[in-house]
Amino acid sequence: MPAIVLSGGPLHERARELTRSLEGLRDAIADLDLGIETLRATLGDFEVHYRARLAPAHEQMKRIESYVRMLDGWAGILKSTTKRVVKSEGVKVDARRVKDVAASAVFRGQQQSRADAPLRAEVIDTQPKLSAKTEASRIAEVKAVYRRLARRFHPDLARTEDERLIAGHMMARVNLLYRAHDLERLVALEKQTKAGEVDDSSLPIEEQIAELEVREAWFQAVLENLREERVALEKSPTCELYRNVEQAAEVSRDLVEELLRELEARVARAYADIIDAALRLERHVAVYNRDSTTLDNTANRESTANQGVVKRASGALTQVFDPYTDKGLVRLGLDELATARVSKPARALADRFEAYADSEPTVLSLLLLTYASEKCPFPLAGLESYEHIAQRLTYLDQDSEGTPCSFEEALVALDDVLQFGVKNVTQKVAYAGLRFVDKDASTAIAVALQRASVRRSFRGVLGVLGELVHCNGCDREVFSIPLYRTRGLDDLRASICPRCATTHSSYWMPKGKDVQAVLNPTYLDYELVQEWTFELAHLSIGMQLLPVQTEAMTVGDLKKRFYEDTLERHQIEVSRGQLALYQGGGKVPEKTKLAGLSERSFVVQFDGAKLRERDALELIRHRIRNRFK
């Protein structure tokens, strides 16, 4: 903080007022930064423990699901292609399966090495064990020193680029020492850095005031950014799961152990899904062998549910968006907690819904369309009218097994569970659509989705929720797949053709306003959409692709898209040549095929650029914040 000589008069009083305001803002920023760092470290420790206990069973579940999807992929190929095409497509499927198995083995080795490795830190805790009282006192002192250092060296409080560079390096050291609770080295660092402040007292009072006002506005923006970061952290799925685990521990329950037992039971049940899928494949083999006629490929309306169903499952655990949000393993834990609280009527409904999978496909599709509709606050693009719903049911019936029926017949069969009517109404507008009338129906669907046949149907439903458009890329009528072209910093939505990856629309929308945003994690879980993440400074930025894009693109293609959508779009002064993507400490060659990578995450570095990654991140956040103002 500049040392300013103050005397009397209105201008000097204004300078004193601004100085007091800056001191208060510094304190608030330091306190908030300490709270965020503490919570982040707590959640990081919790997730390491949670992952170590549940990851092996979760990986086994994903491998079973991958195998079932492989069998379903064969069945889909036999059902919808000629014998000539089956041969070439079959080789593709078989090759992908070999890649799945190999990638899974590599991935399990990576997970084990990660579980065995210590948390990333350059500081080794060599402190002797202390009593609980002494340890609490020590931690309190560590926090106090951290707060003082953060108040002095937080990079966002720097006035010049040089100051920011120095402060960034200092805070990196401070954070490492804080996580290790190394009080002695923190105190030593504080003493080393107490050298003199810059003396700005020679400046005219008007210039002092102008400088102080600029810094006050900047400090307030920094404080607002930190508040948003804290709220996002507290609302994250990992934090929600952590709170549940801590609350259970207070009544002597090991919630993680309970989740593990339930997951292991699901794994045991899931092996039966392989048998069902294999028998289904054998039925299609028999039909195919009996029918020697060639199907008309150009007229055949393939289900979007069968597009790219056989993909790598090895990236399931590494498919992250942010260090503490939207992780598959965390979502699974929260889903299991919800399932454990299911009532007997809901379980009975789940059994009834599961039975529809084998005999009444239209009825099951209508249930699943309603389930998707109930997840969103306003009508989905594909469920806006009676005609839209009937159109999608007819489309889904073309590739279903069992006996289809009309939309009207399905509505009557489910009149005790759901209805088409007024979904919600306000003083200004009413929305028609599908809604459950049985309060247990939505919970029952969540339970029924543990069965492979129901999941298979739901995957088909997800594939038709987008808008029906004529794609100029492949000259066909297709249901667009909604995804995030980028998310994390900037939520750029897009609708993509599942056949040829043509972009049908691309647009920004303020967070929380997009009706399909709530379904995006489900698209990821069912592998209709795949997410690639880029770690820029301390935040991960997600870019989503369809499986058909992953098969066709290289790392260089993905790097170009990241550069254009994230850096160039926000006028960050880094050239494309300076942008480098790393995995496992090594730079990834641009010619590498995305489909050949076992991980879907990269670390972003600016090789040879003057701008640091952290500074670029803050600039992007600032420009996004002010874009719509």
- Estimate the helix proportion, in percent: 55-70%
Q: Structural class of the helices, strands and pairings? A: alpha+beta
Number of strands: 12
Can you summarize the main beta sheet?
A: 5 strands, mixed
Low-confidence stretches: 1-6, 82-128, 195-199, 292-326
Summarize the structure.
The chain is an alpha+beta fold. It contains 19 helices and twelve strands.
Describe the 3D structure.
There is one protein chain. With 629 residues, the protein is of the alpha+beta class. Among the domains are: 10-50 and 131-249, no CATH class; 342-465; 474-625, Roll (Ubiquitin-like (UB roll)), CATH 3.10.20. It has 19 helices and twelve strands. A hairpin with a 2-residue loop joins β8 (530-536) and β9 (539-545). It starts with 9 loop residues before the first helix and ends with a helix.
Give the SSE layout.
Elements: H1 10-80, H2 83-116, H3 132-153, H4 161-179, H5 183-192, H6 205-235, H7 237-249, H8 255-290, H9 328-340, H10 344-359, H11 361-375, H12 386-397, H13 407-413, E1 418-425, E2 430-436, H14 441-448, H15 452-462, E3 468-471, E4 476-479, E5 481-486, E6 492-496, E7 503-508, H16 520-525, E8 530-536, E9 539-545, H17 547-552, H18 555-568, E10 579-583, E11 586-587, E12 601-606, H19 613-625
Parallel strand pairs: 8-12
Antiparallel strand pairs: 1-2, 3-4, 5-6, 6-7, 8-9, 10-11, 10-12
